[in-house]
Amino acid sequence: MVQSGQRTKRIEKQMPNFNIKASKYDFASEPQAELAKGLFELSLDYLPDTLPVLLDVGCGTGHLSLDLAALFPKSLDCLDISKEMLEVCREKLQVDFSSVKWRLFENDAENFEPDIKYDGIYCSAAIQWFADIPKFLSRAKKWLKPNGILCIGAFGEKTLCELRTAYIEATDRRLETEAKFFSLDKLTAISKKADFELLDFAKCIYVQGFENPDVALRTLGDMGVTGAGKKSLSRTEVQKFKEVLLKTGNENFAVNFSWELMAMILRAKEIRL
Length: 273
Fold this sequence. Notes:
CATH topology: Rossmann fold
Strand order of the largest sheet: 1-4-3-2-5-6-8-7
CATH superfamily: Vaccinia Virus protein VP39
CATH architecture: 3-Layer(aba) Sandwich
Order of helices and strands: EHHHEHEHEEHEHHEHHE
Number of helices: 10
Distance between the termini: 34 Å
Radius of gyration: 19 Å
Shape: globular
């Protein structure tokens, strides 16, 4: 059952329209799928021996939800602000995990109020959209059982460096996006200030290749990465932008984008046994 939640005007204004992109998201989101896989694998040693109670924050179309369901948890809650994304996730869970106890919630992390506590809270490829990360950490801490873990998958500050460099060269302006990319040290510091300790982490560079600039830019749009600048590109700037993007290519692909994938396993200090 999908539980409708109140959405703030801020979120509706700043977030990409993932309802529109839901049908294309799985075909575009290779980096998000890789991040979810890495976060899931890193977390396994820190889950309890008993069947866990899990929450997937910003579950999207279910990249991580399916892996979590494969653990056959005691229960699995999946939370996302996009109704259409949730519907895709629902279809996958119904096909492959009809015997697992799962629930879908249409809401965001700043308004969600769970009715249970969790052994593990997962948030992969979503934190870059949060307006107030410390607020989310404070809320998540209250949702965890004693000794529970918070698992965050995030894109590091090196993400899409080729795209940003090409944009500057083509327009003499910085590329502005609503998404926020952090270093591992910065996220660790934010988490520490919220009284979480870092149990484990992993990071790597994932390179996504494309056959031409048009496909590259269309794919980014389908995954929700769009420019947020007030000034549109002129026809000349667009052409130059695409020409500069071709400089990122190699013998395999005409255009390459790098994604810095970071996985973090956290535990709240005051509830550690």
